[in-house]
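User: Run a structure prediction on this.
Assistant: Running it now.
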Amino acid sequence: MQRRARTITTLSTVLIVGLIIATTVILFTNRSRPLTNLSNIQNASIGNRDKTPLTISTQKNGIQFSAAITPGPYFLGEMLGINLTVTNHTQNTIYTGIPFIGSPCGYFSGIVISGGNGPRYPLSINFDHSCPPSFSPGSALQAGKSTTVHTYEPLLSSGLLTLTAQTQFLKHNVNTNKNRFFMSQSIDPLNGNWPTTHIQVSPDVPADRQILLKQDGEHVSVNGPPGAQSDLVYAYGLSCGSIATGDETGTGNYAWNKLVRPTEPVSPPQDSYCSGKKISWTYVFAAPGYALTSGTFHSA
């Protein structure tokens, strides 16, 4: 099956081997249709604007890493808005990787969630897919500077959860401009001291934290409370063909993308491979501090 999603290792060693391989990566990436993009921090919200965000932070070897997260109380299926910040207190330039740079293999919010012993939320959309290794030198952060990225992470388990903020730091071992080759590898300047906190997640969704959908044929309108409408994000999966005919394929945006025009109906994305075929479109909408809501459209 083409473009089938699979599990990736998010914080992996990154190796750059030149223009030829980089070109191959670009071609492969386009076929895989990863539409991961990072939201503009100036227009992003972590929800519950009238409350103080849940903030966790750590500092080691001159590098400070912190996360500001949607405040509680928390419930199953809630979307968290997250501001991740790295501050460079050293005298040297450092390099940040995923999620401060986009991943060609899917979406990573920078928050790893573990634990939970209650009901779970079934999320039927993939956020990673088959791809070659990532080829990126990272994003340079000069001495004395800070950088922030806004991400999203849903609460898919209830009960007592552990939230750990993680990111990728890169070290450049070789930089030979003449041949345009360089190598970078993942390092851990925080010595494993990632910012961590614990939260309690209720299995019950508050009535005022729900987002409503209205489907009219292939068009879906999203109606959320005033606090949610301007912060709506969207993820989807699209499939067509069948195993029987040997042309089954699937794709998606592999990310939480902010809706540019949240008051307008949303329709299935156009995909040239699925042109003229019956499609199955699965969609999920959410906003920080509000519940996920989803649906499916099958063409006739």
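Residues 1-42 have pLDDT under 50 and may be disordered.
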